[in-house]
Amino acid sequence: MRIKRLKIDTYREYILYLRRDCDLCRAQGFGALSKVEVMANGRGIVGVLDVVDEPFLDSDQIGLCEYAYQKLGLPEGTEVNVRHPDPVRSVELIRKKIRGEVLRREDYRYIVQDIVSNRYSKVELTAFVVSTAQGAMERDEIVYLADAMAETGESLEWGREMVVDKHCIGGVPGNRTTMVVVPIVAAYGLTIPKTSSRAITSPSGTADTMEALAEVSLSLERLKAIVEQESGCLAWGGSFALSPADDIIIGVERPLNMDAPGQMIASILSKKKAAGSTHVLIDIPVGPTAKVASFTQAVQLRKLFEYVGDRMGVHVEALLTDGSQPIGRGVGPALEARDVMQVLRCDPDAPQDLLDKSLDLAGRIIEFDPAVRGGRGRATAEEILRNGAAHEKMLRLIAAQGAREPVRPGPLVREGLAARTGTVASVANHLVAKCAKLAGAPVDLGAGLDLLKKAGEAVREGEPLFRVHAEHEADLGFAWDYWQRHPEMIVIQ
Fold first, then answer.
1. Averaged over 439-449, what is the pLDDT?
2. What is the SS3 string spanning the chain?
């Protein structure tokens, strides 16, 4: 069979196409949803077959979706061997997990290796994600999964005794503290090579927000050079193969809107270990509409993070923070980037909650340095911010990564008005996040919400509570309709 490139976006899934009347389909028992292995010149992929009747394929051609074509890396017209693949033995391990059994270290190695080799169909990968989410993972299983994920990709070595990092588990819109913390910590002199994910279930991830200011898709060589020069970076981790299984698993979690504790811890700490981090601060926001709703649940999660980190040889400290409402004003990449730069410039209009939380987190990281007395980290961080060193460091990071024209907020605007006079009682994190996503974030970097009132603030009838920014009329309409159907997004008493 000869390869034909089909520019079909299947989002990280290998889909292959054969004509129903081709010899293979007739003679070899290939049918729709069959697994098919394609090999040539020492390269191969395993994909799921779609059978077509349309004439865009010749009977001696096999069509490859764009993702499969790019991964196989062979030119169109290359002759390939097509056959039924060997059974994926680790699928039986997934069945064991579905039955509630505890898996061993080597079991997770087999599973992760098959994930990275793209030997699972989306159905099988989804079964794994759901089995480890719904069936409780033993804490040692989380260690096994995290270690396996870290071991299957590239790893970074910095040749330094201390390499620090920081991560928030998410669930609070606008919580873009990382982009303030990194320049403060790097200006202090600690090494902080921050690689971040794009949004999974939120309107923006750190990489999405940084992309409103600079390039984030960096090669490994370029990232290393930037860190050597500036002691830090703010890059997208998906640009290189640090814990590559994580990116594949996230591709399933995103449409399921799923982020189970065991998978989350394995995801975060596998990336940190692969990135060469020795000391990591985890931000766990706690609030009624945050990812972690109760203090008891937060303490359990903190203990689990610290246990898994210790078993992996990474010093982890988890900090419980206020997750009762969004942080900052902007929710969406460009709006959050604006808030970050206001804080770094010490602008009087900068969001105070973003400023305070960023200083707390940066201070705790600075206290990883044995030379800093406990309790003095925040004062050190504040001085670095106030004297302009953090802002200067951020400008240097932006220039080193490749500055881009700052993205402006979406030009289509509509304001949500208060229906009554009173005090804002609550702002629901998950509803704000959903509304911002409907406005187009993070796909459209300028889309999202500007929160003009927060919990505890007085408001008059008819006064704006928030502002929707969108690039397209349809998205503006979707976000507005969501607000109309969910007035509990911002409650006034």
1. 97
2. CEEEECCCCCCCCCEEEEECCCHHHHHCCCCCCCEEEEEECCEEEEEEEEEECCCCCCCCEEEECHHHHHHHCCCCCCECEEECCCCCCCHHHHHHHHCCCCCCHHHHHHHHHHHHCCCCCHHHHHHHHHHHHHCCCCHHHHHHHHHHHHHCCCCCCCCCCCEEEEEECCCCCCCCCHHHHHHHHHHHCCEEEEEECCCCCCCCCHHHHHCCCECCCCCHHHHHHHHHHHCEEEEEHHHCCCCHHHHHHHHHHHHHCCCCHHHHHHHHHHHHHHCCCCEEEEEEEECCCCCECCHHHHHHHHHHHHHHHHHHCCEEEEEEEECCCCCCCEECHHHHHHHHHHHHCCCCCCCHHHHHHHHHHHHHHHCCCCCCCCCCHHHHHHHHHHCCHHHHHHHHHHHHHCECCCCCCCCEEEEEECCCCEEEEEECHHHHHHHHHHCCCCCCCCCEEEECCCCCCEECCCCEEEEEEECCHHHHHHHHHHHHHCHHHEEEC
